[in-house]
Amino acid sequence: MGIHGGGSGGGKYMFNKVLAILIILAAGYPKGCDISDFLRGGRTGDKPVRVVEGQYGQSPISKSTKRKLQKKLDKLINKAPSNYEEMINKFLGDEDAFLRMVYAEMIAGGNVDVDLAVTALMLGLCDDNDLIRKSSADALGMLGGYAKPALPLLKEIALHDEVEYLPKAANEAIKNIEKGEYPERPWSWVSPDYPPPMKLKKGNIDDPFESLAEAGLIEVISPHATSLGIDPDAVTVEPELLSRLGCPNATERKLMGAKLATIDIDAEDELTAIINALGDKDALVSYRASQVLRGMSGDIAGPLVEALGSDNETLRQNAARVLGHFGADATWPLINLLQDESPNTRAAAAMALGKIGAEAKHAVPALIDTLADPEKNVRAEAIRALGCIGPGAKYAVPALIEKLDKDESDIRPLAASALAAIGPDAKDAVNTLRKEVSYGGSETRVNSVKALYFIDPDAMDCVDFLAEEFTGAFQLTRNLYAAYALRDIGPGAAKAVPVLVKGLKSQMYETRWAAADALEGIGRRAAKAVPELTDSLKDKDYWMRKKVAWALGNIGPKAKDALPALNEMFQSENRIEVRIAVAYAIAKISGNKGDALSFLIDSLDDEDWLVRAYAAEALGEIGPIAAEGLDKLRVLASGDPFDEIRNTALEAIEKIEAPAMED
Questions:
Q1: What span, in angstroms and rounded, lies between the C-alpha atoms of 220 and 222?
Q2: Which of 80, 185, 521, 607 is the residue whose CA sits 20 to 30 A from 543?
Q3: With 50 as the cut, is the pLDDT of residue 535 above it?
Q4: Cα–Cα–Cα angle for 185, 191, 194, nearest 5°?
Q5: Which residues are CB-contacts of 52 (< 8 A; sequence separation ≥ 6)?
Q6: Contact 319/349 with Cβ under 8 angstroms?
Q7: How far apart are the first and last CA of the chain?
Q8: Interatomic CA distance for residues 66 and 75, integer angstroms
Q9: Given this model, what pLDDT does residue 263 score?
Q10: Per mean pLDDT, which range of 162-171, 245-254, 567-576 is the poorest?
């Protein structure tokens, strides 16, 4: 069959199995109830429609790209049948993320013209709702080789999306697309190994329409149950959401996972269902389950420790990662997990110990043993964990020297960074670090110099070396590694400011951003860079504008000459994350309360979790003058559904309440 099914006469009005059945059902709707209300479980003018909203979090894809895609879609959609237009408009514009996720899979799996489908799903990647970006990435992955035009946008999501599970989803889609396989279309919404329909029972859902019925469509579907082959008695009571997390339909689990952050868990069987969802193969479901668990109070560490013994490898890994958020009490179970038969699980255990940080010092002997693991990813996570433990890992220095001297090329820079984190107690590594400065690869060289700075600043002129590496290297990666090392050194790298200022004018975005990042780390001692940073506020890339604003804010009152440009930008900037950075800079430089500070405090109430996180971080960095935001920060610290925000709010409270420090 042809790949452009929507353009043929026989396929002009064809829908896939899902939409066809929904249209049949639509004939029996009460007057005035449209297909969207049906899918949600509501009726126009009858009862409120249930809406799933998602986490939000702005897409990293630029608005100019989105506008170009919209123009292309408008041209394509004018040539498409009206039913396709309705489907795509619902996907792109409906208020209910749950419904839009369904339409994403319909667009990929149905008879929609492939160019139209790919363009619509690429627009989905530009959406500021994380659920839609996830569903769009999944759907593009389903399209295989047909979705090659989407690869640049998927790579942008993979590199820059700040919603934790989305880079993984984008990388999965990229992998499927780059296989170059062209699946036959249309295909069923249900996977080929999906069991045949059975009678609907609580906790045993084997048909997508029956599942949708349980998702809240009981009243609408009941009159049609017999014609659909559904037992009428089975749709009279709506079961709990959690009982559907284990159903065999991947799409249904994903849709249920989208709702996880909106429910309250207060019973042991519900806790078990959430912990089991950690083992789901879909990244969205397992991630949402981990968020719910990380936000719960009470004794849930015990059940999570029990999950470490599960036969489900994914469950063991994700349970370990969640335990990393429970502090020192989780150390011993994670130490035991370092012996797991699965390399990925061993790596997850090491990662979780790193998350615990200095309080996991009792894990140092086990992590030293893990440095001999045959799997590189396990050794890498063990080295990172030792670095996170810091000076408490001083007994690992000999083993880390061996990794720096003899392990694979991409392990060596990690060992150098871990030695830097241990600090002066790693003095025995100085000679090996010197050797790596002379003969190591780009990242190893730079990390070794950074380590020498923190272990023995007199061992060499580290800042001069890094400044020369930043300006003299012909390889972009060497520029970037040098800039990151200067950032980590911080105020002590002040004499590198002139070369970093030159980097702000580079034609390469990566170099400009790295230079601004290093200047942000140097902070108040980077005051000579203020004129060039002020000019860089006009950069066309919003990530760069955001970074520059933070750099100016970190310079503080010495950046007062940038205030006119910042005040103008505060009024005109349309990216909220950039506007938050600008507001931070204004408040930090001026030291005054005003519209910028009020904007940051108001942003703590934003529906977008990333906006709340950015605002909380900014208020913490501003310090005591942000005291009027303490009440809202305390609300976030105790009640926000996302642990990232609770932790950021707690850190902000500590910084605001801390005594002012003199320069």
A1: 6
A2: 607
A3: yes
A4: 145
A5: 96, 97, 98, 131, 258, 259, 262
A6: no
A7: 72
A8: 14
A9: 52
A10: 245-254
Phi and psi for 201 in degrees, rounded to 5? -140, 150
Predicted pLDDT of residue 60: 87
- Can you read off the two tokens belonging to residue 114? 């492939």
- Tens digit of pLDDT for each residue in 632-645? 999 998 888 777 78
386: CB partners within 8 A, 6+ apart? 364, 367, 368, 393, 396, 400, 418, 421, 422
Question: CA 418, CA 314: separation in Å to the nearest integer?
Answer: 28
Q: How far apart are CA 595 and CA 193, in angstroms?
A: 58
Going from the N-terminus, what domains does the chain have, and what CATH number goes with each?
Answer: 5-24+55-178 (no CATH), 190-296 (no CATH), 328-460 (1.25.10.10)
> Which token pair is 492?
């002590």
Angstrom distance (rounded) from CA 583 to CA 621: 12
Q: 480 is written with which tokens? A: 């970037």
Amino acid (1-letter code) at residue 199: K
Q: Is the dihedral of CA 621, 625, 629, 631 positive or negative?
A: positive
Q: What are phi and psi of 591, to 5 degrees?
A: 70, 15
Asked if 462 and 454 touch (Cβ cutoff 8 Å), the reply is no
Residues 6+ apart with CB under 8 A from 645: 609, 612, 613, 616, 636
Written as one string, the DSSP assignment of 191-217 is: -TTPPPP---BTTB--SHHHHHIIIII
Alpha carbon distance 548, 509 (integer Å): 13
Cα 194 to chain centroid, rounded: 30
State both tokens at 50: 């249930």
Q: Tokens representing 225? A: 């149950």
Cis peptide upstream of residue 192 (ω within 30 degrees of 0): no
How far apart CA 283 and CA 321 sit, in angstroms, is 14
**Nearest CA to 431 among 456, 408, 412?**
456
What is the reported pTM?
Answer: 0.66
Q: To which residue do tokens 């065999």 refer?
A: 248
**Biggest alpha carbon–alpha carbon distance for the chain:** 83
